[in-house]
What we know:
Keywords: Repeat. It contains 26 helices and no strands.
Amino acid sequence: MQESLLRSSKTAITVICSAVSQKLNLLFFHSSSIIHYRQHQQQEQRGEEQMQHKRKQEPSNYIDISKSPIGSPSRVQKLIASQSDPLLAKEIFDFASRQPNFQHSYSSYLVLILKLGRSKYFSLIDDLLVDLKSKRYPVTSTLFSYIIKIYGEANLPDKVLKTFYKMLEFNFKPLPKHFNRILEFLVSHRNYVKPALDLFNNAHRYGVSPNTKSYNILMRALCLNGELSVAYKLFNQMFKRDVLPDVESYRILMQGLCRKSQVNGAVDLLEDMLNKGFVPDTLSYTTLLNSLCRKKKLKEAYKLLCRMKVKGCNPDIVHYNTVILGFCRDGRAMDACKVLDDMESNGCLPNLVSYRTLVGGLCDQGMFDEAKRYLEEMISKGFSPHFSVSHALLKGLSDVGKVEEACRVLEELLKHGEAPHTDTWMIMVPRICEVDDFGRMGEILDKIMMVEIKGDTRIVDAGVRLEEYLIKKIQTKWRV
């Protein structure tokens, strides 16, 4: 009888243990076995005496997690973080919340908010924030950085704006990084530039002081919106509020003035900048040089180019090419040649754009001998002339009767593996055939055979004159 009762008791214990194990495995996806669970509980019990003193010092709302049947908040947080499905992570979070003697860690909220945000479950995020606030968790800046990022990536400027006031509800003063991120997201939408400006103007009421970056964000947006006067007002306000502008602040206004074709105002701003001890960056100079060249104030552009080095900013290839282009467009290619010569003396080597622009400008003015010299220099340095450049030069030389010189240029191109365009062949072949005794054309054809001929550079498309030339050459050969 006693043996029978003993066997029944063992069976009951086995069934109960099995049921508990299955339940834990089901709820936590086999995150730990029942043996690990018991070991964990035993470890916590062994530390009970050490915890007694701490509990007495905890606030009245302290929850004794050692009595939680699902383990520590750290374990739950790891389980939530491991889920790829955000809704499943939320179910685990909710299940743990309902357990007696359990309170989530702050990290669990952060992890879950980020997961839900990436999948655009925004209403669930709102619920979590309400829960955080009601339970008076001490929030950190990371939480709001996450939320601003989530709503910004989801293209929800209204939600981004409301996040500012949400921080205040948590008695958390927005940091400059939060404030600036909010402004950046708002001004990226044209319809929210005005709300961004309103927020900016009212920020001091909430104890938030805009910094230099805040001003730059607003000024750039206002300039792009054509509201230059408002941007200028903000710029002047910086000095009154002891906010020091930086190089970018000046550049933003310079670009705004140049867009409005107020290049003189931009130059004055540069002078003011230099007088205050700022060293303009390369982009500031590029902005001014472009505007001066477009306004055909090439003398001023060249002076500015020469002043750059003296003022602590070495001109680069972009600055030189900008002025070269300006002179060429204004029909002053010889002045452009002087700029190119200055480049090399200042240690800045001309590039492909420099030569192409200059050769094209010289050809436009009929200065074919100079153009030929720079084209040859260009090719000797390994630069490939665009077909439009070589075409302009070959056509120009042919038009003024310098066919022999055009042939030399053509041979130089072929020698360096540059096959002229079909349009160029259609001009050159008839001219060569008119003055040639068939010898020169034959030499050129021999050299053509050594060049990779592409679809748009095929000499056979040059037309009837080449066909006539070849027929005459064959007839001459047969006569001999």
